[in-house]
Design brief:
It is a single chain. By secondary structure, this protein is an alpha/beta fold. It folds into two domains: 2-383, Aldolase class I (TIM Barrel, Alpha-Beta Barrel); 390-427, no CATH class. It is 35% helix and 16% strand. The protein contains 14 helices and 17 strands. It has helices at 30-34, 39-50, 84-93, 143-156, 172-184, 207-210, 213-226, 243-251, 295-312, 329-337, 347-352, 356-370, 390-404, 422-427; strands at residues 2-6, 62-64, 67-69, 73-75, 97-99, 117-121, 129-134, 161-166, 189-193, 231-234, 256-259, 263-265, 268-270, 275-277, 287-290, 319-323, 342-345. It has an eight-stranded parallel β-barrel with strand order 4-5-8-9-10-11-16-17, surrounded by eight helices. The protein has a five-stranded antiparallel beta sheet with strand order 1-6-7-15-12, with no helix packed on it. The chain has a two-stranded antiparallel ribbon with strand order 2-3. Helix 7 (213-226) packs parallel to helix 8 and helix 10 crosses helix 12. The chain is globular, with a radius of gyration of 22 Å.
């Protein structure tokens, strides 16, 4: 393993949502017509989106809260959605939706530092990254500039899904103002950043709200009373039970949950300088951890939220967007099997580039073909039924032993461990 400091300047992970066209039909939101796009341009756009998936392969399109995407792969809020140029690139490469980097009304309060990234690697190659830390804040670009670029993107790509990620202080009028401004720019949905793990907690922003369900409920009610487009609440994993804020957000009117944002971390200490990384003038601060290393944690959180949504909100048009270490189509399939409608990629784009979406789509279609799935809904949430309690696992195994008159695999009791055969004995109880 190798800890590597990343220099350079750009912004941090955190946000989600979607829209576009389904197979054989074109579904446009009302504001697309209002912008005057011609029927021929809409048809060309639709045909181009359908061509993003492998010809004749399984259908990757998804519909979430009335928003239609050509595939479930969404640019997660962060550097990959930091300005017009990169968001345009994402649309051109074929991403199902783009979530812009989180913005607030007063960008002058946002001051980023450099370096602000550090990464953990398992090899010498530039893509051998399995852990990534950032101490980046939300967008430091003027709010008016970001809004103007969102408006320009929707004018140029009226039938693609563009989501605004927003975050504000504990101030009802500020939330109402920022919602009105980004909706006026034509965005298709809002993702609310209740989960940024570092920076500005003293202003009651980000995870400071997401970790306090009473405060979260009040702010969600403000937001949903004002918003006219779907609202997604982005969850922090830095909490004991992630289902509690997720349930609070949904009960307060949000249509969707995205999870997880980054995990609070310290990447490491440079043993030559004895200083923490990333190091800024000899000092650092805990930041958000992402990339492949967080995927097992993200899967557990998404599973818990999906189970809660299934039991507490049955039959409702709510959605779940999975985030955390997704770099292959198979990774995406795991999140979808646990109930995610869509998946977000942020760090993965920073490592592999925008064109990586083509590989993601092809790999997901290969998985679907292998299992004879023709649509995302065919297998969404399919694996949730296989989770249970440890006591139930014991019961099931005991019943299986009795039924089959077989001896279970591995050691029967802790007294059977031996020092000499310890490694081999361990292997007899590993399932993969």
């Amino acid at each position: 393993m190798r800890l590597e400091l990343l220099t350079g300047a750009t912004p941090c992970p955190g946000i989600s949502s979607f829209e576009v066209a389904a197979p054989g039909q074109i579904g446009f939101r009302r504001h697309a017509f209002e912008r005057g796009c011609s029927s021929s341009s809409r048809s060309e756009e639709f045909l181009g989106l359908r061509a993003l998936a492998a010809e004749g392969g399984p259908d990757l399109s998804v519909t979430v809260n009335g928003l239609r995407l050509p595939n479930p792969f969404v640019i997660g809020s962060g550097p990959p959605g930091t300005n017009y140029t990169v968001m345009k690139r994402a649309f051109d490469e074929g991403w199902g939706a783009v979530i812009a980097k989180t913005m607030s009304l007063d960008a002058t309060k946002v001051v980023n530092v450099t370096p602000r990234y550090a990464r953990m690697r398992v090899g010498s190659g530039p893509k051998d990254v399995f852990g990534w830390e950032n101490i980046e804040l939300i967008s430091d670009r003027p709010f008016e500039t970001m809004v103007a670029e969102l408006r320009q993107l929707k004018q140029e790509y009226p039938d693609r899904i563009l989501i605004a990620s927003i975050m504000e202080e504990y101030n009802k009028s500020a939330w109402e103002e920022i919602i009105e401004c980004v909706e006026d720019a034509g965005v298709d949905a809002l993702e609310i950043n209740f989960s940024c793990p570092h920076g500005m907690p003293e202003r009651r922003m980000g995870a400071a709200v997401g970790q306090d369900c009473e405060l979260l409920q009040e702010v969600c009610e403000w937001i949903n009373a004002k918003a006219t487009v779907p609202v997604w609440a982005k969850m922090t994993p830095n909490i004991t039970d992630i289902t509690q804020p997720a349930q609070t957000s949904l009960r307060a009117g949000c249509e969707g949950i995205s999870a997880i944002n980054t995990i609070m971390s310290v990447m490491g200490i440079n043993l030559e300088t004895l200083r923490p990384e990333p190091c800024v003038e000899g000092y650092s601060t805990p930041g958000g951890y992402s990339s492949k290393a967080v995927r097992p944690i993200a899967l557990a959180k998404v599973m818990s939220i999906a189970q809660m949504m299934k039991s507490e909100f049955p039959g409702q048009d709510l959605s779940l967007s999975g985030i955390g270490g997704i770099e292959t189509g198979d990774h995406a399939a795991e999140f979808i099997l646990l109930g995610a409608n869509t998946v977000q990629v942020c760090t993965g784009v920073m490592v592999h580039g925008y064109s990586h979406v083509k590989s993601l789509c092809a790999e997901l279609q290969a998985f679907m073909t292998k299992h004879n799935f023709t649509s995302i809904e065919d297998f969404r949430g399919l694996s949730l039924q296989y989770f249970t309690t440890h006591s139930d696992l014991v019961r099931r195994q005991q019943e299986a032993i009795k039924k089959k008159h077989a001896i279970r695999k591995g050691l029967a009791s802790d007294k059977d461990w031996t020092g000499e055969g310890f490694v081999k004995e361990t292997e007899t109880m590993v399932s993969n």
